[in-house]
Amino acid sequence: MDDETQGLLDAGARLIDAALRAGADAADAAVVRSQSRGASVRLGKVEDTESAESEDVALRVFVGRRVATVSADIRADIGPLVERAVAMARVSPEDPYAGLADPEQFARDDLDLDLYDGTVIPSTVLVEEAMALEDAARAVAGVTNSGGAGASVSASGLVLVTSAGFSGSRQRSNFSRSVSVIAGEGVKMQRDYDYDSRLFAADLDASADIGRRAGERTVARVNPRMVPTGKYEIVFDPRVARGLIGHVIGAINGAAIARKTSFLKDRMGMPILPQSMSITDEPLLRRRPGSRAFDGEGLRGAPLSLVENGVLKNWILDGATGRELGLPGNARASRSSGGVSPSSTNVIVTPGAITPAELIDGVKTGIYVTELIGQGVNMVTGDYSRGISGFMIENGVLTYPVSEVTIAGNLADMLLQLTPANDLDTRFSIVAPTLGLGVMTVAGA
């Protein structure tokens, strides 16, 4: 442990001691720190370079069943911060579900999940990488303009100390590259992009490859057509498939269940996916973006089956949400300067037995969706209506680009029709393959 981290742990412990002396019955302190640097370019010129650092502390205090959270810069005077937190807690309404986690469940050992790469990349190199991204994308025949390119590096960390005896720290790094370009002219212009994001710098795809893919994706979208309104088989590219699975994760988040704002609130123990599909949440995978050695309450998470053989098995719970629902928590608390809430870690969908090409080959008339437009998802009812762009599928072959059409349905029905391919991409915290959605209503010309 470096001296800086130890200093933050000591600062957290001082906050806890001060809160208890000021009249709190229990308290915890979370220091959330972040550092980032980035460079962006457009049309061969540097548009921006930036650097940012922050260290914020969130102090949560309990007075009986009353709780309050205050946040401030870690360098702030702790006296007024503690006094304000305790005073706020004393006048807050009672929360019968509030409280610290059971000390018997604390993560007691350091677990290195290999989430941090200390590689230093100078700003000059970030500019060079951004230039290389854009140059490669603009070199693709048919690209006519640029939306810009960027390269960045960041690190974030959490230091958590509780009056119940937990003390721990964790950190992760992130390196990213992205570029967006335009093809076509006038009203026929189309935009697309490509990107890569990794925990370790050495794992990033080459900037030239990212840029080339962005250019090729964009040119392929030129001169799109509308399709007649009707019923079509729909296939989601992994980019949009991750968003669909994200809706499932949001719908089984314990906070949504407690508020009764989820279309899945009454479906526990019932099928919500095809029998061949499962979804797990795995917090302890090495070098994966959603991993964490302990959660926002100091607990060591374990692999959790969310959906097993199609059947909904578990909500995503922190301690308070679990108590509200009359269930044991499952160490899925996230922590920010705003407080504690349940969240997933690494969500993994069971892959299918066929390749994406084989999935598409089985479609006679359909649309391969590469982009979703708009926010037409009602998480209370499951009603789903989104604008789409993509490519027509005719007799198992991707043909012409499609845009300005809308798909509509209900998530509960859509999920039961899913057919997964086998192309899992582990770069992201939601690992979902190409997904066939079966027949859906398409509003077009």
UniProtKB/TrEMBL annotation:
Q: Report the residue ranges that make up the Metalloprotease TldD/E central domain in this protein.
A: 126-221
Locate the Metalloprotease TldD/E N-terminal domain: which residues? Answer: 27-89
**Single Gene Ontology BP term?**
proteolysis
Q: Name one GO molecular function term.
A: metallopeptidase activity
Q: Where is the Metalloprotease TldD/E C-terminal domain?
A: 229-444
Q: What is the superkingdom listed in this entry's lineage?
A: Bacteria
Looking up PANTHER family in the UniProt record yields: METALLOPROTEASE PMBA (PTHR43421:SF1)
- UniProt-recorded name of the protein: Modulator protein
Species assigned in the record: Aureimonas glaciei
